[in-house]
Amino acid sequence: MSKILVLPGDGIGKEIITQALKVIDSLNANNNLGMELVHGLIGGSAYDETGSPLPEETLKAAKECDSILLGAVGGYQWEVLDRPLRPERGLLGLRAEMDLFSNLRPAILYPQLAAASSLKEEIVSGLDLMIVRELVGGIYFGEPRGIEVKDGQRFGINSATYFESEIARIGHSAFQIAQKRDKRVCSVDKANVLEVCELWREVMEEVSKDYPDVELSHIYVDNAAMQLVKAPKQFDVMVTSNLFGDVLSDCAAMLTGSIGMLPSASLNKDNFGMYEPIHGSAPDIAGKDIANPLATILSVAMMLRYSLNQTDLAGKIEVAVNTVLDQGYRTGDIAAQGDTVIGTEEMGDRVVAALK
Ligand code: IPM
Ligand code: MG
Predict the structure, then answer these.
(1) CATH assignment of 107-262?
(2) Minimum-distance ligand to the CA of 43?
(3) pLDDT tens for residues 201-245?
(4) Looking at domain 1-101+268-356, does it have CATH number 3.40.718.10?
(5) From the CB of 91, is ligand 1 less than 6 Å away?
(6) Which ligand is nearest to the CA of 96?
């Protein structure tokens, strides 16, 4: 029996999580999955109810569970709050508290959706790349940070810092993932300018010695952005620091035509994981039954694969999603001419039907 903490969060979070729960219910009923669900609050909705974007109770529940399934956090109404109270802090706090240092962000192009990409079909068709992003260090968490007054004017400061051990462990993650794929790791840095990246590159070289079967290359982040748009299929696994991975993973996601299709995993050293769609809370479309629930449903598949060792069931979900796409059903974000546009609820129901 595995225990899953469900954190819908804000915006479209609730409606997309509802669809993922339908899938879990169906797997529980038909495959003896034995998932027990615990529900909790995070983000702006947690702030509204408890005064904190990451309530103690949520953190306690996280520590007692086997995995977390998260919707999304954030919304306009909370942007005026002091920084420590903002929804994003709930997410960042959970990542840090659970030491979820290894963030896997696959960018896969579903052949049925090739027309939805803004790039030419031949550039993206068959795309299957994995960004492995360091998630609990770097400039997101480095000290000192803040806004001060210096020489009579305001002065903003953040610090990009990495211990070699932090670089090594994300390196090991990336190499181990590459071993199960095309055995190529491309490490992203800005070593021509930043010392912290010089260290990053050195440590990646050292780690690579443990993986003689995997080829390591290095690329500057500006060139990486360019290459992702020019010839994305050249990459297998890209390993990045926290900030570079944030930026490049949005870019990679968009190559696939819809950020609404992409799941992610954030793992600690014991493979405890938090699973969430890559897209955000999209408050502008919340409650309208138009959000795409597939990234969240595919996050359940990732959870089964990476934390719960249920590869077969993960595959079943992925096949079901493919079946629904083959049938021509699309939410608005991935629809092309001639497709049948359906809502969030119906998409969830169709995936459940295809599972059976
Ligand atoms: C992401 C998001 C988060 C990040 C925000 C919401 C804090 O953009 O998961 O990519 O910057 O890591
Ligand atoms: Mg981001």
Answers:
(1) 3.40.718.10
(2) 1
(3) 999 999 999 999 999 999 999 999 999 999 999 999 999 999 999
(4) yes
(5) yes
(6) 1
